[in-house]
Amino acid sequence: SDLLKRALGAIDKLQAKQPDKPMAANLRGRIQLAQKDNAAARKSFERALAIAGQKGVESGEIGRWINNLGLVASDVGHLAEAELHFRKALAVIERSEGRESALVALALDNLGAALRAQEKRDEASPVRERALSVVERSWGVAHFQYGTALNSLGSLLLETRRFEEARERFAAAAEVYREALGPGSPYLVWPVTNQGLALLELGRPREALAFFREALALRRELYGEEHGQVASSHSDVGLALVALDDFEGAEAELRLGLDIARRTLEPSSTTLAEQMVYPADCLVKRRALGEARRLYEEALPVFAAGFPAGHSSIRHCEEALASLAQK
Fold first, then answer.
1. What is the pLDDT of residues 108-144, one digit of tens each?
2. Which of 21, 24, 69 is nearest to 7 (CA)?
């Protein structure tokens, strides 16, 4: 957006005057991350750390910058690398700020997300529980970060098939965000989407569709149409339509999501690969087997590079291709 471009211009002027200030490089990286310019964001965060490293001082702020490198890696689907950054960030923050610092909760939440995405659920569960506990003690239940911790715990419950408990956590997280940040907050997108996912698993696709459409409207307002999160919302709408047996409408939404994802995400992104699998599954139902096969074949090596062996996404593609080979 124009606002982000103006902010980058102001930061460039600040860096020119104070090249030895790591904060300016970090701010630049945050804006570049919001713009989905991940390669540039990585360079900015690395520069901030390099400048700070020359001073030889460890602090919670440096831990946050390391955490930002994890966010870049996570955003492009490099989850093992993201986990390493988040673990390092957590260690730095704990040493400099203490184990009960509010910054610790942020690092724990990101680490839990990376573990969950790699299906390391036994490791993710205590991390997420600790994050919720630290947030409650540090900020209280009315703070928006408590909503973040609730949403994260709900995601873990969703993946362990405790769907109603997950839905309740997502609903509570959404309420915290609305009260703390207002109805148009970008944070609200996540628990709204996740309520839809839980309802879909509970066999309530019409209710899920309403949440997915709410999330899509929020993301369009925040980011415009050309954004990876908007692509994900189109796919969510498509999945709900599949569950409602509206395969024509579903295919249109899923194709739109994939088209946006191809334009906005890196080819190595596991998120992009997920956007390939959704329409492929729908195409199988519509008997368009050749096109479905091509999408599975395109997604599989991306998953294999980004996820550990045996990950459910890898297995899904392998099983789908094996089934198609028999038809």
1. 888 988 998 888 888 988 898 888 888 888 778 888 8
2. 24
